[in-house]
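pls design
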């Protein structure tokens, strides 16, 4: 068999209803099955895609532990479909406010997790920041995880590069401002896109990283999300993008 010279990644722009864990797991499996048919090695889901972007005080039943059945189910998906899965949820913190957790599973094992470090604005009332930046070995490649507002902190990407990461997967759920009834989707999409282009493009070039982006998309019960999938190469160029704010998948290949 010819040795693989690339990793294929699915960057999923998913609609993640708040608190609808079983519904979100079902959608995840559909995306994973589609990815398997495309020969995907890693599938990356948005921030909090399992629980939705919840206010943990309004939906405490959707605040999960790492031992929750939903997390076990995603780990099983990684074995059943022979795919590395990156997914997110709101994690119970016995010492205080919950964490925003993005975890990685492969071959039926939980490889580990990253707790979002950059907690600010409204999130500071709801969530506690993490303080660790682990990296993970997947198919011989070192991968780091970042979450949404981490895009504002170049030190996070510098730290991953210092640890030998060649890929960082940025999972996001930047809620759009304004009333849902009068939502300007295009302006919201363009706002998030310009943030990614300016900041992630710069970090990719400065740190010689590939950076992939997966963003929540569409309307939930009380909030909208802009979508947008992107891949930046180590020269800082955006080599692939989804081009719209709709749900869907951006399939990309990274040489190894």
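designed seq:
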């Amino acid at each position: 068999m010819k040795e693989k010279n690339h990793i294929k990644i699915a960057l999923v722009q998913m609609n993640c209803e708040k608190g609808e864990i079983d519904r979100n797991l079902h959608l995840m499996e559909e995306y994973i099955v589609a990815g398997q048919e495309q020969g995907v090695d890693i599938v990356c889901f948005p921030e909090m895609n399992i629980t939705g972007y919840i206010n943990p005080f309004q939906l405490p039943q959707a605040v999960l532990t790492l031992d929750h059945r939903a997390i076990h189910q995603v780990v099983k998906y990684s074995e059943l479909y022979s795919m590395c899965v990156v997914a997110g949820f709101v994690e119970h913190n016995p010492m205080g406010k919950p964490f925003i957790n993005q975890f990685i599973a492969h071959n039926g094992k939980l490889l580990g997790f990253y707790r979002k470090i950059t907690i600010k604005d409204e999130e500071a009332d709801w969530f506690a920041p993490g303080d660790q930046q682990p990296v993970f070995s997947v198919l011989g490649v070192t991968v780091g995880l970042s979450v949404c507002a981490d895009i504002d902190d170049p030190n996070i990407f510098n730290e991953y590069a210092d640890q030998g990461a060649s890929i960082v997967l940025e999972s996001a759920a930047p809620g759009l401002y304004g009333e849902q009834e009068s939502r300007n989707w295009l302006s919201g999409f363009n706002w998030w896109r310009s943030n990614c282009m300016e900041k992630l493009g710069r970090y990719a070039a400065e740190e010689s990283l590939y950076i992939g982006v997966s963003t929540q998309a569409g309307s939930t019960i009380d909030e909208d999300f802009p979508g947008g999938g992107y891949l930046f190469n180590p020269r800082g160029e955006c080599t692939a993008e989804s081009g719209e704010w709709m749900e869907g998948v951006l399939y990309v290949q990274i040489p190894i």
